[in-house]
Specification:
The complex is a heterodimer. Chain A is mainly α. Chain A contains 13 helices and no strands. By secondary structure, chain B is α/β, with parallel strands linked by helices. In chain B, strands 1, 2, 3, 4, 7, 8 and 9 form a seven-stranded mixed beta sheet that branches. In chain B, helix 7 links the parallel strand 5 and strand 6. In chain B, helix 5 runs antiparallel to helix 13. The chains are: A mainly alpha, B alpha/beta. At the A-B interface, helix 7 of A face helix 9 and helix 11 of B.
């Protein structure tokens, strides 16, 4: 009797059980470690020391990327790394090196797309089909909002730095649709980030290209209200886009003053992002003379 | 005592040596454009500005007002007249408000290749420099939006199909309406700001635009087809207020002239690359490219001839039209050899 087929089948069965068991154990272990990882993200958001955050974020990103390698289907890890990559790129890289920041945003977008494919029936080809993308968005419900938001956020951040690339330019309306859907599902999600995004888009392009003073202002006002004026980055973008584009010097000064006078420590979970907003607004204030045109001076 | 005298002497020498440096006046050219920050247009102009600052040792620089901060092209021309803004980037529509003759370069089905465009623009540069100077402007150099194509929701690449679509025409552009009317193609004149909404509600279902602009304006999301035979070539240029220019010392004038000449050529080349890439992007995003038949192209050119002749004497002189056509023929004859 040839026992070989039987033994080999048994061996495969035992090994499979072991592997599955090991996978289960690993997942159980990871589930119990999740609160620690979540706390790590919270701790980073509560970091008020700009330099410390700058030094610490890369390690966080690598830790999360390592975990994603081990647990590729975990939605939460990909969302966190997406947030970390976008935050690091925006806060510490893009003013010095736009190309490097673009790469960070693309990496974040890849994680966001992967999440969308795995958890929301998304297909990468939808990114090139107006009808498919819009249909997919219409089918999304509130439970998908985190996937939608970070897809829009990372994609939008990449586009903003690559307006000289026609392909990126073509993608802008797609991100606008994503952010409009986020607003329809939960407009306050991530500090009303979708309102800040759309306010910035309508406030930075000429009306001829689809910009709108009224729409920009309405989005920013809604963002201020939903966040109870605590999210300083909304004021920074308001000053940088709407106020400059529509030459509202008083509103610009008011927004910068609001950022300057707010204490980073006032809002515990926004300390890092508010400290970045303070840093950036300082630079914006220094450039303000060049941003506003005084007609009377030249009459 | 001698030490002290030496110090005074050195101080006096330093002060006198430094005086010419302090006496050198600094100039800021304020330039307005509709192009948003970060676009190829603005990136190229920023590169030029760095070069100008370096070559002039900081005595001349450009301050940009991008993204239409100064209003549309007509607002910028008004501000230039009052010397509030010193320079602007313009399309044919804005350029034509100062020198209507220049619209001859935007005539439908006139140019068939970049070679023809470049040859005619270069040959007519001095003519138009003088025409703008007479109106108080310096023509710093040509730019362009590129070849313009027709986009539609249903397939349209011949006059029969064109007459069945609801085609938008730019209300502020007298040439567009005259050209389409002359060719028997009905249009719906609207301001450019209303096009997107009109496409959304179905008031219009087709438009004309260079590929890059179709992406930038987001209009491409509302159509399915692009006809690959260009209906026209959209010219552009940078104008500088002559009052500002005349105040510049000669060396700064030269730096400004040389740099605009160099960088606007770079800009044209990059715009062409962007337009080529935009066509690929349009395809990637599901736009079907349609080819017009040779017969249709011939007939369109014959029809457009009538438009060119009808507009001669009103929008531009007959003499100028003949000169343009003769220059184009030179290129075509040359290419046949």
């Amino acid at each position: 009797m040839n026992l070989y087929p039987f033994v080999s089948s048994l061996l495969i069965a035992v090994l499979s059980t072991q592997i599955i068991g090991c996978g289960l154990l690993r997942n159980v272990a990871m589930d119990s470690a999740r609160p620690i990882l979540l706390d790590q993200t919270v701790a980073m958001n509560r970091e008020a020391d700009y330099e410390l955050a700058q030094d610490a974020l890369p390690a966080n990103i690598k830790l999360l990327e390592g975990l994603i390698l081990s647990y590729p289907s975990r939605k939460d890890f990909k969302l966190w790394v997406c947030e970390a990559l976008c935050g690091y790129g925006f806060g510490f890289v893009e003013d010095q090196d736009k190309q490097r920041a673009s790469q960070l945003y693309l990496r974040a977008k890849d994680y966001a797309v992967s999440n969308a494919v795995k958890h929301t029936h998304f297909k990468p080809e939808y990114m090139y089909s107006v009808d498919d993308l819009q249909n997919w968005l219409q089918q999304r419900s509130k439970k998908d909002i985190d996937v939608l938001y970070w897809l829009g956020h990372s994609w939008g951040a990449y586009i903003a730095l690559n307006l000289n690339d026609p392909e990126a330019m073509a993608d802008l309306p797609k991100v606008q649709w994503i952010m409009e859907r986020v607003i329809a599902l939960d407009e306050g999600f991530y500090h009303a980030g979708a309102h800040v995004f759309l306010g910035s888009v309508y406030g930075s392009i000429p009306p001829m290209f689809g910009g709108s003073e009224d729409k920009s202002l309405a989005h920013f006002e809604q963002a201020f209200s939903l966040t109870e004026e605590s999210f300083l980055l909304a004021y920074y973008y308001f000053a940088k886009t709407y106020c400059v584009r529509f030459q509202k010097k008083d509103a610009f000064d008011h927004a910068i003053t609001h950022i300057e006078q707010a204490s980073v420590l006032d809002f515990e979970n926004l300390q890092l992002v508010n400290s970045i907003a303070k840093h950036k607004s300082l630079q914006l204030k220094q450039e303000s003379e060049e941003l506003f045109f005084d007609e009377e001076m030249y009459e | 005592m001698k030490k002290c005298m030496n110090k005074v002497l050195i101080a006096i020498i330093i002060v006198f040596c430094a005086l010419p440096v302090f006496a050198q006046e600094k100039y800021v050219l304020k330039l307005a454009t509709l192009a948003p920050e970060g676009t190829t247009w603005m990136n190229t102009m920023e590169e030029m500005n760095d070069q100008i600052k370096e070559q002039s040792n900081g005595r001349l620089r450009i301050q940009f007002y991008p993204g239409g901060v100064m209003g549309d092209e007509l607002d910028v021309i008004r501000k230039m007249r009052f010397n509030q803004v010193h320079a602007g980037g313009f399309s044919g529509v804005g350029l034509g408000k100062v020198v209507p003759d220049v619209r001859v370069l935007d005539l439908p089905y006139l140019f068939h290749s970049y070679e023809e465009v470049d040859y005619v623009h270069q040959k007519l540069l001095d003519h138009f420099k003088k025409a703008y100077a007479d109106q108080g402007y310096i023509l710093a150099g040509w730019a362009e939006a590129g070849f313009v194509y027709l986009f539609s929701q249903t397939p349209a690449c011949d006059r029969e199909a064109f007459s069945h679509v609801k085609l938008w025409a730019w209300q502020d552009d007298p040439l567009a309406k005259a050209a389409f009317d002359g060719m028997g193609i009905p249009t719906i004149p609207l301001p450019i700001t209303d096009v997107m909404t009109s496409l959304q509600v179905g008031m219009v279902d087709s438009f004309y635009s260079p590929p890059l602009a179709a992406l930038a304006l987001q209009w491409y999301t509302r159509v399915k087809y692009m006809c690959t035979f260009p209906i026209t070539h959209a010219t552009g240029a940078v104008l500088i207020n002559k009052k500002f220019y005349d105040k510049l010392p000669d060396d700064l004038k030269k730096i400004l002239d040389d740099n605009f000449s160099q960088y606007l050529k770079i800009l044209i080349s990059r715009t062409r690359e962007d337009n080529a890439k935009s066509k690929e992007t349009l395809k990637k995003n599901g736009i079907t490219l349609l080819d017009a038949s040779d017969q249709e192209v011939k007939e369109l050119v014959v029809e457009s001839n009538k438009v060119w002749n009808n507009l001669a004497g009103t929008l531009y002189s007959r003499e100028l039209l003949d000169q343009v056509l003769s220059l184009i023929n030179e290129v075509r004859d040359d290419s046949k050899k």
